[in-house]
């Protein structure tokens, strides 16, 4: 329906979300409608228009399109609108749980996964042989581990669950024992037409928004971002239905080092922005913006960055990390450390490339420019060319936030950019030095009535001084060769391994 009763149009907010640097909400605005006679109260008393699509029109066309997220009734009605999608991105991820099967041993969220990812399967059959992998078909299974030991005794398939939903399963040759851990490394969602694995940032982002969140985005919307990130390979899981769609996209974009806005043409872009001298740009000079302000602060500078990556969803932790340092910035500003979670990244090369790109931006002071100028209906993320005598930075930059003041016919824009030479960056620690992961590195020897266990790290090196606890009871300290001995019976035993500089880890051995 059309309502020709606009009483006020507060500004349209168009922020760009740069996860890890400046995450932001979706573009939004509020609309005031005249309700002096109570007509809208009567109209919407029983059926308020929340979650309904809405468009704000003017003589020149549509000013704003989105969905109604809130209604306030009074002499004036205020509608809160969120842009870009036909459902609020503040909605939680619409992931099912194992409750849909009518019976379950443990209530679990049924996840979606992309690229190569390791998951903890969800029990499907009562005999502990059939497990659900992901809540959709997958491309294949690469490895199955039972208590950290690889096994070939399994079969996987894409099938239909008891509700008629297409899901993926694994069936074990032997039932899973009580307390035994099962981890499956698999290749997740595929392109519906070609069967090709979806694993680049643009492919995954489109699939999350279009097919999981049900947003009205098209494959072609991501053409530019697909070109920018064609060489990036990600792998990850969405398995928490208490997280909003916006937060899930933020996590994905932080892993890829990107920025996004649902209302921006192209949806996403690489951050820091890749240069594009041919793209049109809004010119900001003394004539267009007589008043311009620039500000910087001591906060926000980072000189040491740790990228956490290769997240293992079965174990619930990151498997690897890389630490980078800008030595000149450390000498000037001190060691200012920050961790950069990138759970979707899988390779050391891309983790290091991401860290270098982000640290080059973060290790320098950054100017934030703000200005007002006559009305210009530009989207956030658009190019802006700064050539202003009051600006400490010049050249082309991406619009970080655009505030369109409809009543004053003004645009309030802002950009942010670092200054000074790009710092030299060195890699100071790889994952094994920063937070090594103890794999199933236990060897077993029998010596008379005692069993000798040797603890090793992921490189196969012995762990002298490690504290090893057997079956939750006795604890012994490993000798210089990483060995301890216990008088134990033959059978299955659980060892807790604790060593300085390593996260605690469990290993299961059968003697």
UniProtKB/TrEMBL annotation:
<keyword id="KW-0645">Protease</keyword>
<keyword id="KW-0121">Carboxypeptidase</keyword>
<keyword id="KW-0378">Hydrolase</keyword>
<dbReference type="GO" id="GO:0004180">
    <property type="term" value="F:carboxypeptidase activity"/>
</dbReference>
<protein>
    <submittedName>
        <fullName>Carboxypeptidase regulatory-like domain-containing protein</fullName>
    </submittedName>
</protein>
């Amino acid at each position: 329906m059309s309502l020709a009763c606009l009483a006020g149009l507060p500004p349209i907010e168009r922020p760009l979300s740069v996860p890890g640097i400046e995450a932001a909400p979706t573009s939004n605005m509020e609309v005031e409608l005249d309700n002096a006679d109570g007509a809208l109260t009567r109209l919407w008393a029983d059926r308020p228009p929340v979650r309904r699509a809405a468009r704000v029109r003017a003589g020149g066309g549509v000013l704003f399109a989105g969905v109604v997220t809130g209604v306030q009734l009074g002499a004036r009605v205020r509608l809160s609108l969120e842009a870009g999608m036909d459902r609020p991105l503040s909605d939680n991820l619409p992931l099912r749980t194992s409750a849909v099967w009518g019976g379950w041993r443990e209530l679990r969220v049924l996840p979606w996964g992309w690229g190569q990812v390791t998951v903890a399967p969800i029990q499907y059959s009562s005999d502990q042989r059939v497990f659900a992998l992901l809540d959709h078909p997958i491309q294949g299974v690469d490895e199955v581990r039972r208590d950290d030991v690889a096994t070939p005794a399994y079969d996987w398939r894409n099938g239909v669950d008891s509700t008629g939903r297409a899901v993926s399963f694994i069936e074990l040759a032997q039932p899973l024992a009580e307390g035994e851990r099962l981890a499956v490394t698999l290749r997740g969602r595929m392109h519906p037409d070609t069967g090709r694995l979806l694993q680049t940032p643009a492919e995954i982002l489109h699939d999350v928004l279009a097919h999981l969140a049900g947003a009205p985005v098209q494959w072609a919307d991501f053409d530019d971002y697909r070109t920018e990130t064609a060489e990036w390979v990600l792998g990850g899981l969405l398995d928490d239905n208490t997280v909003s769609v916006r937060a899930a996209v933020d996590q994905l974009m932080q892993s890829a080092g990107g920025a996004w806005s649902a209302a921006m043409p192209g949806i996403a872009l690489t951050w820091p922005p890749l240069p594009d001298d041919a793209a049109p740009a809004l010119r900001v000079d003394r004539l267009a913006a007589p008043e311009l302000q620039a500000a910087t602060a001591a906060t926000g500078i980072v000189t040491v960055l740790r990228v956490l990556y290769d997240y293992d969803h079965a174990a619930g932790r990151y498997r690897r990390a890389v630490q980078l340092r800008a030595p000149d910035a450390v000498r000037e500003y001190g060691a200012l450390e920050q961790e950069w979670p990138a759970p979707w990244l899988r390779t050391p090369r891309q983790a290091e490339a991401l860290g270098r790109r982000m640290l080059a931006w973060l290790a320098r002071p950054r100017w934030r420019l703000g200005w007002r100028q006559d009305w210009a209906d530009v989207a956030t993320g658009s190019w802006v060319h700064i050539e202003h005598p009051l600006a400490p930075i010049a050249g082309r930059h991406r619009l970080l936030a655009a505030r369109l003041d409809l009543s004053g016919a003004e645009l309030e824009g802002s950009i942010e950019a670092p200054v000074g030479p790009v710092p030299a960056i060195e890699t100071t620690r790889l994952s094994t030095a920063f937070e090594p992961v103890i794999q199933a590195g236990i060897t077993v020897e029998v010596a008379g009535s005692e069993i000798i266990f040797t603890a090793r790290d992921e490189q196969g090196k012995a762990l002298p001084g490690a504290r090893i606890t057997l079956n939750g009871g006795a604890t012994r300290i490993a000798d210089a060769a990483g060995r301890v001995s216990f008088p134990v019976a033959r059978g299955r035993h659980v060892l807790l391994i604790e060593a300085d500089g390593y996260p605690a880890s469990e290993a299961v051995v059968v003697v």
